[in-house]
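Quick log. Single chain, no ligands specified.
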Amino acid sequence: FGALMARSLGGGWLWRRRRAAAASLMLLAAFALALPAGAQIIYRTNQQMVDEADLVVRGVILTENARWSGGGRIYTDHPHSITDIEKAPQTRPEGEDPIPAVNEGGTLAFSVIGGQIDTVIMVAKPIPTFDVDDEVILYFVYKNDKWIVLNGERGKAEVQTKDGNKVVVGGSITSGIAL
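-> predicted structure:
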């Protein structure tokens, strides 16, 4: 078949050249259609973050427990001790999920996608990461019976001690710029 096509299209070298050009165009089209997916954090001021959050708390990450979830994803559970409540949850309108009570001195557990199990590491940007004993301020929304960090990395601010004073530092470049 190839020989027949080569003769009908004017010779072997011309056939190979057209075939190579067609293959190149197909590869170019495949790359153009396969653009990488990405996520963005919508810029929010501190006041907008507080307004949109159901809960804003300061505390310390107590432990971390990475686990496998459906679809081959890793989630990490983080219990968080609450030292201060900056914004307490409000009562929701009738028909919406009620928000559980949160108390200073209590613990709030939340999960984020990503983490490490043995030698397998999953990183999801722009999801914030946490280390045990991090002192953080977190902005949460309550959805589907879960506390979710609001607006990705922007929903985390680190509390650090510098020269004996506590200062709030963005948990990422994005949140650092916003602060």
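The beta strands are 55-61, 65-69, 73-87, 107-113, 115-117, 120-122, 135-143, 146-149, 156-162, 165-170.
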